Amino acid sequence: MVSDKTNPMVRNSISKLLTQGEIALIAGVIGIFVVLIIPIPPFILDLLITLNISATLLLLLVTLHAKGPLDLSTFPSILLFLTLFRLALNVASTRQILLQGYGGKVIASFGEFVVGGNIVVGMVVFLIIIVIQFIVITKGATRISEVAARFTLDAMPGKQMSIDADLNAGLITEEQARKRRELISREAEFHGAMDGASKFVSGDAIAGIVIVLINIVGGIVMGVRNGMSVTEAMQHYTILTVGDGLVSQIPSFIIATASAVIITKTSSSENLGRDLSCQMLSQPNAVAFASGILTVFCIIPGLPKFPFMVLAGFFGVLFFLLKKSSKKLTIEESKERGIKKNAQESQSEEDVGKLLHVDRMGIEVGYKIVPLVDPQRNGGILERINSLRRQMAGDMGMIVPPIRVRDNLHLDANQYVIKIRGQDVAKGDLFPDSYLAIDSGATTKPIEGMKTVDPAYGLSALWITGAVKDEAEASGYTIVDPVSVMITHLTEIIKSHAYEILCREDVQKLIENLKKESPSVVEELTPNIMPLGSVQEILKNLLKEQVPIRDMATILETIADYVTTTKDAESLTEYVRQRLSRTICQKYQNVEGKMGVISFDPQLEQTIANAIHKTDRGNLLALEPHMAQKLIDKLIEVVKGSLATGYEVVLLTSSNIRSHVRHLIENALPQVAVLSYKEVAAGVKIDSLGMVKL
After folding, report:
1. pLDDT of residue 274
2. What does the H/E/C string look like for 15-69?
C-alpha cells in the first residue's frame, strides 16, 4: 500500500522537475560563473567534481542507448555547458591548490592513489589520456562531424524533392510531409551544430595541457614563497596538479567518447549495444576461426598458454551456441519464406492490378524544365501547384487530385505535357531562363524574341531574355515568368476539364463535408432518393460549363425539391442553374454590373424548340445539318462583332432549349456562355449586343 501511494508522488515530483528544467538551466549557468569568481571550500569542490564525473558518465550511457542522433538533439548544447563547467572547476581547483596547498579529497585521491604518488607515472598517464583524446578520438570525431554536416546539407534538396513527389503522388498526407520536412531540417541543424561543438572538445584537450603546465610552475613558485625547497614544492604541487588534471581530463575523455559515439551513430530501430551484438555475432564461422587461431597461439612456444586457452574455449562455446541458434533461425526463415511465397502467389494478380493504375492528373517535363520542379526553389512549380489546388477548392468548390510531376526523356528538352487519366490533353514549351512577352494589342514597338503562342489563351507572344524585359514592359507587352506560364495553362486545363477529373470519391467527400453542417439535406436526398452517380452527373454538367459547385447545400436542396417530378440529370441541372443564377451572372458582369448578351430571333428560337424530340434516352435536338451549320456560322459572325464592346459575350435563350444550344455550339464556340432567361438574377442589367437571325 505504501508503494502504491508513493509511486504517484514520485512521478509527480519528476514531472514537476522536468517542467522546471528552464529554471534549473538558468541556475546552473549562473552557478558556473559563481564557481569561476568566488573561492569554493574543499568539501563543495569535492561535490562539484563528483557531479562533473557523474554527469559525463550519465551522458555517455544515454548516448549508447540512443537509437539515432536526433534522440539526443540537445547534445551540442550539453557539450558546451559541461565544457564550461569543467573549465570552471579547473579554475576553482587551481585557486584552491595555489592558495591553500590542498584541493580536496578527490584531487588528493587521484594524485596519491590512482598514480601511486609518483610524479612521473602521473604525468605519463595524464599525457597518454590527452594524446588519445586529442589525436585519436577528437580528431576523428571532428572530421566525421564535418563530413556528416556537408553530406546532410548536400542531400537536403533531393530529400525535399522526394517528399514533394510522394505528396503530389498521394502517397503521403500534408501532415506526414510536414513532419518529414521538419525531420530533415532538424538533422541538418544537428549536424551543423555538432560540427562547431566538436571544436569545444579539441580546445578543451589543449587547454588541459596548458593548465597543467601553468599549475606546476605556479605551484613551485608558491611553495618556495611558503618556505618549501624547490624539490618539496615540486613533489607536493605536481602531485596535486596531476590529480587535478586527471580529475578534469577523465570526464573530458568520457564526453569526447560520447561525442564520437553520437556522431558515428546512424538512425536505427535499436540502441547501439543491440546493433553491435547482432552484427558482430552474425557470422558464427568467423567466431570459429577466431577460436582456432587462439588455439594455435597456445601451441607456439614462449607464449603464455592460459590466457589463449581461456579465450579459445570461450569463442568455441560461443560458436556452438550461435550455430545452434542459427539453425533455429534457418528453420523459421524457411517457414516464413514458404508463407511469403504463398502470399506472393496469391497477390500476383494484385501486383498486376497496381501496374494498371492511372493517375487522374499528371505533368511530364523535358530535362531542361526539371530545375523548375526543385522544391527548394521559392515559387517553383510544385509549390505553385499546391497553391493552385487550394485556389481551385475555393473558386470552383472541387477537389483537385494530387498532380504527379515527373521527367520524360522522350519529350523535347523544353516541352511539358499535361495529362488527365493518362491521356495527353495539352502541351507547351518553357524556357527557364527566359520570359514570355504577350502582345496585349497595345504595344508601341516590336522587340526581339522567339515567336510563339501563349499556351493558355492562344495569344501571340515572344520568348525574350531578361536583358530586354524592361524594354518589353515599356513597349506594352505583358511579361510572364515561365512558372506562371505553366501554372496559368494548368489552371485553364483544370477549369475546362473539371468534369472529367471529378470522380465519385470526390463527390462522396463533398457530401460528407456538407453533412457536418447540413445533415438533414444529405439524409433526405442520398442515397435512398438520389444515387451518388446521379449527383455526380449533375455536378459534372455544372463543371462542364465552369459553374462553381462550392454551394453544395443549394445544389442538393434544389435536387431534393425537383427529384420527385423528374430524375433526368439534364432537367435537374437546369433547375440547379436557375437557383445559382447570382453566382453564374456574377462571372459575366463588368465593373458596372452589366452583362452583355446576344439572343436568337424569336422565330429562330421557336424553330429550334420544334426540333427537340423526346426519345427513350431523353430529349434530343434534331436540326438539319445544313441549318445547324448556317446557325453556327451566323452566331460566330455576331459574336465577333460583339467582342469589340469589351464584354464577355453571353448567349441568352429560353430555358427549354438552353442545354441543347450549348451542346450544339460547344465545339465551335467553347468560350461563349449560354444562359437562359431564368438564370438572369434580379438586379442584373442587360446590355443587348446583337441578335442572331437566319
Report:
1. 62
2. HHHHHCHHHHHHHHHHHHHHHHHCCCCHHHHHHHHHHHHHHHHHHHHHHHHCCCH
DSSP assignment of 344-371:
HHHHHHHHHHHHT---SEEEEE-TTTGG
What's the rounded Cα separation, in Å, for the pair 26 and 181?
A: 31
Question: Residue 652: what pLDDT?
Answer: 92
Query: Using CA atoms, how far apart are residues 115 and 109, in angstroms rounded to an integer?
Result: 9
Q: Return mean pLDDT, the chain.
A: 79
What pLDDT is attached to residue 91? 82
Q: Return the minimum-mean-pLDDT range out of 123-137, 394-408, 517-531.
A: 123-137
SS3 state at 667: coil
What is the crossing angle of helices 119-131 and 230-264, to 10°?
Answer: 20
- The set of cell numbers assigned to 292 is 582456432
Residues 453, 620: Cα–Cα separation, whole Å: 38
Cα separation of 260 and 269, whole Å?
20
- Residue 197 to residue 192: CA distance in whole angstroms: 9
The percent helix, strand, coil of the chain (3-state, each to 5) is 65, 10, 25
Measured distance CA(578)–CA(667) in Å, rounded: 24
Asked whether 12 and 20 are in contact (CB, 8 A), the reply is: no
All cell numbers assigned to 378 = 521559392
pLDDT at 1: 39
Q: Alpha-carbon distance 221 to 233, whole Å?
A: 8
Q: Give the three-state DSSP class for 225.
A: helix
Q: What is the pLDDT of residue 300?
A: 77
Between CA 689 and CA 642 the distance in angstroms is 6
Half-sphere exposure of 73 (CA within 13 A, CB side): 10
Cα 106 from Cα 580, distance rounded (Å): 87
- The pLDDT score that the predictor gives to residue 2 is 41
Angle at 89 between CA 245 and CA 38, to 5 degrees: 140
With a cut of 60, say whether residue 637 has pLDDT above it.
yes
**Cell numbers representing residue 18 in the block:** 522536468
Give CB contacts under 8 A, 24+ apart, made by 295-299: none
At 416, give phi and psi (nearest 5°). Answer: -135, 155
Global pTM reads 0.52
| pLDDT computed for residue 339 by the predictor | 61
Q: What pLDDT sits at residue 653? A: 92
d(CA 670, CA 665): 7
Lowest-confidence range among 204-208, 338-342, 522-526, 614-618? 338-342
Report the alpha-carbon distance of residue 525 to residue 511 in Å, rounded. Answer: 11
Q: Does an H or E element contain 394, and which? A: helix 381-395
Segment 349-359, tens digit of pLDDT: 545 555 566 78
Integer angstrom CA distances of residue 660 from 271, 363, 546, 566, 692: 71, 34, 17, 18, 16
